[in-house]
Specification:
Elements: H1 16-30, E1 37-38, H2 50-63, H3 79-90, E2 102-105, H4 108-114, E3 125-129, H5 133-141, E4 156-160, E5 178-182, H6 194-207, E6 210-214, E7 240-245, H7 247-250, E8 258-261, E9 267-269, E10 275-277, H8 278-289, H9 295-303, H10 309-333, E11 338-340, E12 346-350, H11 355-366, E13 368-369, E14 371-372, E15 383-387, H12 392-405
Parallel strand pairs: 1-13, 3-4, 3-5, 5-6, 6-7
Antiparallel strand pairs: 2-8, 7-8, 9-10, 11-12, 12-15, 14-15
The protein binds D-malate.
């Protein structure tokens, strides 16, 4: 008899964004005339930068001739892209990361979900709350928790992120082994200072813990004082893995390209207490389970760092940041307390009521889709997240409709 992995039965029926999409479809079926504005899932709406498109075309042409054709590429990514990443995203910011510590993939979602496979079943996992649901669900699937009770899984150490701590969690008061951090944060839009990240790195070193640092929204940082990478922090290379993505940076949500940095110095321990290279483990996994991102896509990603690409990408992000600033100001004008929206494409809003109820109200009365905060965890209740990824016209209309609905 074929039996299932019963850990899947501990999960909520649907992935958060699939659930939202289902509700929106049902509403749309009942009200086909209603024009819906989507500020829910953080999916980009603007075209790819021209430099990326040109690089993709050129690469496709190379594949059209046997002289320049390429089959399987290296699973970890082509050297041209890994070198460009190391140079522009790290060494240019004083972080000493080399190309062979970079693993190109098809998404930060997959990488943040898959990385936990490298670690023992009984590692103690610290999860911020609210949080990107992938970190939670993948550890539940792996069997590291009991069944959910009141929206929380026994087995996790939850790190509450609230207005009181500026949505940056305090250091754990109990021992944990694996710590998920995300800055600029999804969903709250909060950022972490150098001092805050230093405290986490020092804690991880003292406790032989590992930080999984999701920096998918790094490109939205405009405040010069904020670190873009955890490797700008002294001692981080021994205790942190970093996840990056071209999705929100350069409009690659549909194109798919991301990367994970696993420094050579990063160690975990085996049963006998012997240190083992995490980079070697990830390389083993990556080469076994993944066959690389396509050549034209990696060429397009490389173009992000070119002389033409860099200003184009910056303009793209400025556009969404302008939306974010507009949304934040409009919401504050409606009397709603919010955070995020600068150095981040997300605005975290204190709805002051049940977050699914507020979601339904905005959908029904304003035709605006947001993300209910409780979908990101217990501490997200009574909040919603608004995404700045849309046209300015839609953002302006959505804010007007919300203001009318909430009058
Ligand atoms: C989000 O809206 O939180 C993100 O778009 C989800 C993702 O990047 O997978």
């Amino acid at each position: 008899m074929i039996r299932i992995n019963s850990n899947y039965q501990k999960l909520q029926a649907n992935y958060l964004f699939a659930d939202i999409a289902r509700r929106v479809r049902a509403f749309q079926a009942e009200h086909p005339e209603r024009e819906i504005i989507r500020l829910g899932i953080g999916d980009v709406t603007r075209a790819l930068p021209p430099a990326c498109i040109a690089a993709m075309h050129k690469a496709a042409d190379e594949l059209a001739s046997e002289a320049t054709f390429r089959g399987y590429g290296p699973e970890q990514g082509y050297d041209f892209l890994r070198e460009a990443i190391a140079e522009h995203d790290f060494r240019a910011r004083g972080a000493d990361i080399s190309a062979d510590e970079i693993f190109v993939s098809d998404g930060a979602k997959c990488d943040t979900g898959n990385i936990q496979e490298l670690f023992a079943q009984d590692v103690r996992v610290a999860i911020p709350d609210p949080v990107y649901p992938v970190y939670v669900d993948t550890n539940v699937m792996a069997g590291r928790t009991g069944a959910a009770q009141d929206g929380r899984y026994p087995g996790f150490t939850y790190l509450d992120c609230t207005a009181a701590n500026g949505y940056v969690p305090a250091l754990p008061t109990q021992d944990v082994d694996l710590i998920y951090l995300c800055f600029p944060n999804n969903p709250t839009g909060a950022t972490a200072t150098r001092e805050q990240l230093q405290a986490w790195v020092d804690w991880a070193r003292a406790h032989r813990a590992l930080i999984l640092f999701d920096a998918a929204y790094e490109a939205f940082i405009r405040d010069e004082r904020l670190p873009h990478s955890i490797y700008e922090i002294a001692g981080a290379k021994e205790v942190a893995i970093e996840f990056r993505s071209f999705s929100k940076t350069a409009g690659f949500t549909g194109v798919r390209c991301a990367y994970t940095v696993v420094p050579e110095a990063c160690m975990a321990w085996d049963e006998a207490g012997k240190p083992v290279s995490v980079r070697d483990l990830w390389s083993r996994r990556h080469t076994t389970k993944f066959n690389g991102v396509s050549y034209p896509v990696q060429r397009a990603a490389e173009a992000v760092y070119s002389a033409e690409g860099r200003p184009q990408v910056r303009e793209l992000i400025d556009f969404y940041l302008n939306n974010a600033a507009y949304i934040r100001q409009a919401l504050q004008g409606m009397g709603l307390a919010c955070t995020g929206g600068d150095n981040s494409p997300y605005i975290w809003v204190d709805a002051g009521r049940d977050s699914w109820e507020f979601f339904d109200l905005l959908l029904r009365e304003a035709g605006v889709v947001c993300t209910p905060g409780v979908g990101f965890g217990h501490c997200g209740e009574k909040h919603i997240r608004i995404s700045a990824f849309n046209s300015f016209e839609n953002v302006r209309t959505a804010m007007q409709r919300m203001a009318d609905a909430l009058k």
